[in-house]
């Protein structure tokens, strides 16, 4: 009996020692599950609203979180057949590609130059570039309108290609500067000792090592182009030239009538690829934003 009681006591002691760890694991799991549900709920809401019948949507007695009537594709039919949604997607993609190219061409060399420019002058110049990103677009769209009009780019997608780098380049330059500072100078100096020029060392050594930062610039730029509204509304007047951020609310909000199913369908189609892109490259994206925080 003593052996049994001793064994039982040992088991209770062992379980007692594991209990805090198990509680901590349950708490962590519950926190992550709550956070995951919180983040995924907007996508669930968009998905279920997209396929809900309009009578199911407007009836306040129905449960909004489930299908009370059979699902329907009428909302998608309205989106694709009664609006130029595909055209707006193509316009957004076209503008995004050109803005990404311009941003990379300007921000990557600028970030490298500021990272290698030592002394207080370099820091002051870097802060000045970043401060330009903080200027609200609502202040700049009036002078930009005069520039766009003088260049004859009104009601043209090229006006957006010209204007959008004004807020993508400063932030991306600051981002790339922090990333290049984390790359040891010894690496490029060793490449230059092997016969490379500084530009060659930058292009063949530094740029491949900075792929995470460059990928972050691409994702950030595309996201801003897809969600920007003020400039696109100011400079574009023809519906065939609209981007998604302007075309969808313009044609799916008619007076006090909201086509909620079609609106949510458009939001779902646009947001899912961006969310997948963020999740696929999450590690590199976080690395680019946290680089330089610890060495």
Radius of gyration, whole Å: 27 Å
Summed up, the helix count is: 15
CATH class of the largest domain: Mainly Alpha
Number of strands: 2
Q: What profile does the largest beta sheet have?
A: 2 strands, antiparallel
CATH architecture assignment name of the largest domain:
Orthogonal Bundle
Residue share in β-strands: under 5%
Number of domains: 2
Give the uncertain stretches in residue-range form.
1-5
Identify the overall geometry: flat
Distance between the termini: 59 Å
The residue fraction in helices comes out at over 70%
Which structural class should the secondary elements be placed in?
Answer: mainly alpha
The secondary-structure element order is: HHHHHHHHHHHHHEEHH
Strand line-up of the largest beta sheet: 1-2
Transmembrane segments: 24-47, 88-113, 125-145, 157-180, 201-225, 257-278
Domain ABC transmembrane type-1: 89-281
Family: Belongs to the binding-protein-dependent transport system permease family.
Keywords: Cell membrane, Membrane, Transmembrane, Transmembrane helix, Transport
């Amino acid at each position: 009996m003593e052996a049994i009681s001793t064994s039982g006591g040992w088991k209770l002691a062992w379980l007692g020692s594991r209990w805090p760890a198990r509680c901590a694991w349950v708490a962590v799991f519950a926190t992550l599950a709550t956070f995951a549900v919180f983040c995924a709920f907007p996508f669930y809401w968009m998905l279920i609203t997209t396929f809900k019948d309009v009578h199911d949507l407007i009836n306040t007695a129905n449960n909004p979180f489930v299908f009370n009537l059979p699902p329907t594709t009428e909302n998608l039919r309205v989106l694709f057949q009664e609006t130029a949604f595909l055209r707006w997607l193509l316009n957004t993609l076209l503008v995004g590609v050109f803005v990404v190219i311009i941003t990379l061409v300007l921000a990557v060399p600028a970030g490298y130059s500021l990272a290698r420019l030592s002394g207080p002058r370099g820091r002051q110049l870097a802060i000045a570039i970043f401060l330009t990103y903080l200027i609200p677009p609502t202040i700049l769209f009036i002078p930009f309108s005069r520039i766009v009009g003088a260049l004859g780019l009104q009601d043209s997608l090229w006006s957006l290609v010209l204007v959008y780098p004004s807020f993508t380049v400063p932030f991306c330059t600051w981002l790339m500067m922090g990333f290049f500072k984390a790359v040891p100078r010894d690496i490029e100096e060793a490449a230059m000792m092997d016969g490379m020029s500084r530009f060659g060392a930058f292009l063949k050594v530094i740029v491949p090592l900075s792929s995470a930062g460059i990928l972050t610039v691409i994702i950030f730029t595309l996201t801003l182009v897809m969600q920007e509204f003020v400039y696109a509304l100011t400079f574009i007047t023809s519906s065939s030239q609209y981007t998604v951020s302007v075309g969808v609310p313009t044609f799916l909000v008619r007076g006090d009538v909201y086509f909620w199913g079609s609106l949510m369908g458009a939001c779902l189609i646009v947001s899912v690829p961006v969310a997948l892109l963020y999740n696929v490259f999450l590690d590199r994206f976080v690395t680019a934003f946290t680089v330089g925080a610890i060495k």
